[in-house]
Amino acid sequence: MAKNEKTIVLEIGGRLDSALAASLSISRNKAQELIEKGVTIGGKICQKPSFRVLANQEVSYVPLEQEPSTIIPNPNIKVSIVFEDKYLMVLNKPRGLVVHTATGHYADTLVNYLVTLKDEFEFDEEEMAGGRPGIVHRLDKDTSGLLLVAKTTDAERALQTQIREHRVDREYLAICEGDANEDRFTIDVPLLKPNHSQHKAMPSPKGLVAVTHFEKLWFANGASLVKCKLETGRTHQIRAHLAYIGHPIIGDKLYCDKVDHRFESGQLLHAFRITFTHPMTNRKMTFIARPDDYFIDAIRVFNPSYLEKINVEFGNS
To answer: Which of 9, 60, 168, 242 has the fewest beta carbons under 10 Å from its own?
Structure first.
C-alpha cells in the first residue's frame, strides 16, 4: 500500500468518477484528479473515470494534498515572452520551472509568474486564483521551450479545442542515447498516465493512444539528435516513447538508467516550434525558440560541427 493511501467502500455504483465523488462528498472534477493519479480496485490500478464500478466495492486512493486557496504572485520569476496580444501569449519556458503549483511548488511555478501579470488577463479573480490561468498545455519541469497561454476565456476554449483535435503542431528537439533507429520513424504505443505508485508513463495496451513522429538529424559520439513531433500529447510522451525503444533522452533522471554527470539539469528536450491558428483572427501562426545554453553545450559535446547549423536556424545568441 502506498504511503497515505486510504480505502473506502463505494456508496453507489456506476461511473468511477461519479461513485467516488458521491462516496467522498467531493466534486466530480476532484474525483477525476484522484483517478488520474491512479486508484486501486481489486488489486489493479485504474485511471479511467468512466470505469464501471459496483456499490459496496472497495477502492483505494491517495488523497489530494490540500492546496493554498490562492496563488502567490512571484515577480522574481523570469520568463521570456515570445509573442503577446490581447488574447494570448507564447512563452519560452526556462528549464527547471514547474508549470502548475503542486506539492513542494506553491510559489515558484509558471502559474505564480502569470498571476503577477493578472492585469493582462480577462479572467476574473476566482479564475486567476484557481491554479491554471489560461494554461492550455504543459511542459515538464526540466523541458525547456515554447508554451501557449490564453488570456481570455474565449481564447482558452478555442485553443483547448485545437489541442484536443490535434490542430496545434508541437515540435521538439531531443538528444538521446545511441543510434535512434531509422532516419524517420513513428512510435504508436499507448501509455498509462503516471500515478502515485508508478511515476513513469508506462506502455500498456490499456493506456491512452500516444503517437509521436521522429526524424533523426544526426548520430555522433554515442548520441542522436532527433526532431520529435507530437500527434497526441500524453504526459511524458516523448520521454516514454524514446525510452521504450531503448534510446532514452540523455539527462532524463526518470527514464534513463545511465547517469551522465555532465547533464544533471534534466532531460535534453526542448520545445522549439509551435504552430496554431489564432483563435480570434483565424491566422496561422508559427513560433520558434532557440535551445537554451544547456542544450547547446550538449551539442558542443557530441557534435560541435552542428553548431553552425543551429546558429543558421535559430540565430547566434
So the answer is: 9
Q: State the average pLDDT over residues 105-125.
A: 81
Q: How far apart are CA 66 and CA 240, in angstroms?
A: 29
- The answer to whether 155 and 280 have CB atoms below 8 angstroms apart is yes
Please, what sign has the CA dihedral across residues 189, 159, 109, 132? Answer: negative
Measured from the Cβ of residue 121, the count of other Cβ atoms closer than 10 Å reads 21
CB 231 within 8 A of CB 209: no
The SS3 call for residue 19 is helix
Could you say which of 140, 179, 188, 260 is catalytic?
Answer: 140
Per the annotation, the verdict on 17 as an active-site residue is: no
Give me the residue label for grid cell 480577462.
Answer: 122
Contact, 197 vs 188, CB < 8 A?
no
Of 235, 173, 242, 231, residue with least CA distance to 200: 235
Query: What is the number of residues in the chain?
Result: 317
Residue 109 per-residue DSSP state? B
E-strand ranges in 86-183 read: 88-93, 144-150, 169-177
What is the spatial distance between Cα 193 and Cα 216, in angstroms, rounded to a whole number? 27
Return the CA Rg of the chain: 21
Q: Is 190 left (phi over 0), alpha (psi -120 to 50) or beta?
A: beta
